[in-house]
Structure formats: C-alpha cells, structure tokens
C-alpha cells in the first residue's frame, strides 16, 4: 500500500471494540442493520446536496443512489457498498476511530448494566458492531473532494489508512468489506441475507440489491420495496410494518413494539403527511440536557426528499421524546435549512403536530382497560386487543410522565389538554395511578380545593401527620414525589374552571348569539355567584355601570 499511516483508536472507542468482540450477545444480525442505515444516511446526504447542485451526482452508475450487497464465499468476505457521499481521508480517520462520540461512554455504561447491544445505533457508534461478526474490516471510500482511500483494522487498538491504488475505483461512495469470523459463516448464505433484508430493511428508501447466484451466473436482485410507508393508506399498513418502520427511524435494531403511533395527512393551509411514534422506552438522557437541547427527533422531508434529521421548531421541547417523520408538500425546496427553519408554515405544522401527538397520548389512556373506573364493563368486553393495551398508559406514564409535566409548565395553549394526561398516586388511588378528573369526580360535596402534598416518596408522605385530619375527614390527598411537581401545581390552579368553561362552551356561545342585539361583548362562566343565576358585568377595559350612567347623562 502506498502512504500507509497508522492511528490509535480513541481510548473509549478501543474499549468499546473490545467489549463488542468479546460479546456473548446472540443477536449479531444488527451489524447489517447498522451498515445499511449508514449507507442510507450517506445516500440522503448526497441526494440533499444534489437538490441544489445536480452536477455533484456525476454520470453513469454514479447517479444511481443505491446499495449493493455482495458475498464471496471462498474469501469469506461480505461487502456492502453505497453510492452515497463517501468519506475523505480525514473523514475516515475522524469518523471511524479518533473522534470520541458523545454517546460512547453512555453506551459503555449501558452495556455493562443491561448488556443490550441494540442501542448501539442510537448512541452513535453503530459502525463498530461490524466486529460482532468480523475480525478484520476494510472501509474503502471515495468522496468527490479526495482520492480513494482504504481504512483497515483488526480491532487491535489501531487502524491504518492508505491511499487506494489497487481496488477497483468506486466512482463515489463507500464499500465496507467484512472478513467474517469462523463462527459467522451464516452471513455468507444468500438466504440468510435475504431474510435479514426483509426483516429489517424494508423501509430503507433506496434500492438494495443483492448479488445472487442464478444457476451458472450472478445477477443483482432488488430486495426491498421502496414505496415509503407514510405515503401509503394507514388502513393498509400492518402493526408489524409500523413496528419495523419505527425501528428503522429510531436506529434501534430490537423488535419492541412502540407504545403508540399516529399516521395522518394534514390538509388545508398546510399539507403534510406525518407518522409519530411513542417509543417503547425513554432514552437514557432524555431529561439530562433538557434545558439547552431543542432537537426534535422528527425527520423532515419536503416532497419525498429528505431534508433533515434533527430539525428544531417542529415540536416543542417537551415532546422531543417522540420519534417520527414529517413530509411536507407546502414547504419550499431549494432553500437553505436556516431559511426553512424560519418559514412561517413551520408554525402551522408544529401546531398540528402537537394536537395530533396529544390526541394520540389521550387515546392511549382511553383505550387502556386499566384506566377505566368501570370494573364490571371491563369483565364483559374483553378482546385480545385489550391484552396488549392493558397497562399501556401506565407504561407510558412511567417512561414519559415527566415530559407531560414539563409540557404543563411550558405550553400554556395546551395546558388543559396536558393536565388531563397527568397521573399521580393519592390517599385513595389504591396503589394505582389516578387522574385529576378522577380526583374531581371523587370530591366530597362542598369540597372546593384539591389537596396535595409533596415529598420524596409516597411511603414517607403517607405517614405525614399534616394529612391526618384530611384523611380522617375522608378528603383525598394527592402525593407528588417528583421534584418538578412542586412547581407544577402553580400552573394547575385554574384547571377546574377551564374544565367548566369547556363543558359550558355551547351554552355560553348560544347565550352570546341570543344577546347579540344588546351589543353584549361576551358571555362568560363565573364561579363567583352562589344563588343568582347570572349577572351583567363590564369588561376589564370597559366602563363601570356608574361611569356609563354619567357619560349617558352628559351626552343626552
Ligand atoms: P452514526 O451513524 O450514528 O453517526 P456510526 O458509528 O454508525 O455512527 O458511523 C460513524 C460515522 O462514520 C458516521 O457518522 C459517518 O460520518 C461515517 N460513516 C459510516 N458509514 C458511512 C458510509 N457508508 N458513508 C459515509 N460515511 C459513513
Ligand atoms: Mg450509524
């Protein structure tokens, strides 16, 4: 090799590779998933640049945005090639070894506690999963701005990079060659790879071809269906397909079903399609960098073209736990991300997304049989669907309840909707979670206030002498044990008034129209009155009744 240079892996990366190599982990398939999702990322990058610069794609095979998988049984090599953006020499050195990714230590920690390798992709170190199955890996890459280079490592603490003067020129893109270990022979079987592509990769939006044997020759065979799921009719997409799609979006190679999803088309002033998912689990660092990070986990597409992975302004911070995708027909293409970021249409998209997300969460609660108070009904209507829906809301609450609380504090416009999603334990909740509405329905006649107490744990609060008399008088007391709960209550003071306003909305609307001839400004619900059914008042900025009299006497 010419110009061969040797480099040491960054220390944590080296440790990570060591763990991977010695992992007893049985599901090694995830490496393929990681490689193809990297190929797909690289293809999206070039596709995005090509929007404004057609020339960049070059000509001939270079214009084909595809992924190619090849097997060499004799040499025991599995290779995966993409025609994506490619890597320069510097990229190879930095991205595959010397720059520490922020997720590395988080992943190491997780591995030690849970042994769950599936999260490797989410932690931004998915590439190294190749060492689950290979003892030597070559990465050949060609970027438009550099010559073709090879990166190679046997995972022994170092890697080499050299200018590639002996492999076939790639034109543009990356080829990863895995020299498979003795015990990983199954990945040299065509049938195994076809099965994996079907299982994990159907939702990669680029064609994946496998070089398959056809009697005496080999031919490229298309393996996946490239019609994006979000363009399909929701009625025709199965739960299993949504689950797979979720895993490809979330970079999670496991197979846990998301807690919920919502697939819809918005029409009217803004047109877009979206799929939103509530993940099965909260990421480890969801609230760690909450105050400064405002990256939503929604992918943004404009007319089927991928624009961005982490777009601010699509969702408020407290909903950043959602994963999903938005494909807008209304946003302009061919403008910079900065300009898109400020586009007024984004505001309307955001508003609709919030509404849909909160609807989805509300439904999760409504459809959970455990949430229902009506025990008899529960026994009668039992479908198989109930089994999986049972306890879903509690699961949701345990994972993401804090997000709902933060929402109540931050999102004034949706505060009431969010308050309905709030759950807590109380002196009467019997070890289960209960809601504000349920609390209100249990209130004693004449009870005007909601009682709550904050502290470190329910066990501790139950013993508090402060609530003795309330318990004795049969008043229900809410236990708030999360540090955010203390500030939460401030924002909930008018919950019930808003509730009432909502339930009397039709009546007040009717009154207003009925009184229109009298020039009535508005008809509002009041909790100030005890026996009198209604009263005429002046508005905050209007004249008082007395002032009105004076003015009238002057003009007459
Ligand atoms: P992540 O994909 O989460 O960034 P990985 O460990 O999978 O983490 O990959 C590390 C980096 O290596 C990527 O961010 C990318 O810059 C680079 N890379 C990996 N595979 C490719 C590829 N096929 N084409 C171009 N760049 C790649
Ligand atoms: Mg990756």
Verbal overview:
The structure is a single chain. The chain has helices at 11-21, 30-52, 89-98, 103-114, 190-200, 239-250, 337-341, 344-366, 375-380, 384-389, 392-410, 415-421, 436-442, 458-462, 468-472, 485-488, 495-503, 505-514, 545-555; strands at 2-8, 67-72, 77-82, 134-142, 149-153, 158-163, 173-180, 208-214, 217-222, 260-266, 272-278, 297-302, 305-308, 323-328, 425-426, 451-454, 477-480. The chain is of the alpha+beta class. The chain has a 9-stranded mixed β-sheet. The chain has a 5-stranded mixed β-sheet with strand order 10-11-14-12-13, with helices on both faces. Strands 15-17-16 form a 3-stranded mixed β-sheet. The radius of gyration is 30 Å and the shape is elongated. 32% of the residues are buried. It binds adenosine-5'-diphosphate and magnesium ion. Magnesium ion is lined by residues 34, 37-38, 121, 126-127.
Tally the helices: what do you get?
19
The total beta strand count reads 17
Bound molecules: adenosine-5'-diphosphate, magnesium ion
The rounded distance between the terminal residues' Cα atoms is 104 Å
Proportion of strand residues: 15-25%
Low-confidence stretches: 375-380
Percent of residues in helices: 25-40%
Computed over alpha carbons, the radius of gyration is 30 Å
Mean pLDDT: 86
Structural class: alpha+beta
Q: What would the principal axes of the Cα set say about the shape?
A: elongated
Question: What does the main sheet amount to?
Answer: 9 strands, mixed
Strand order of the largest sheet: 1-6-5-4-7-3-2-8-9
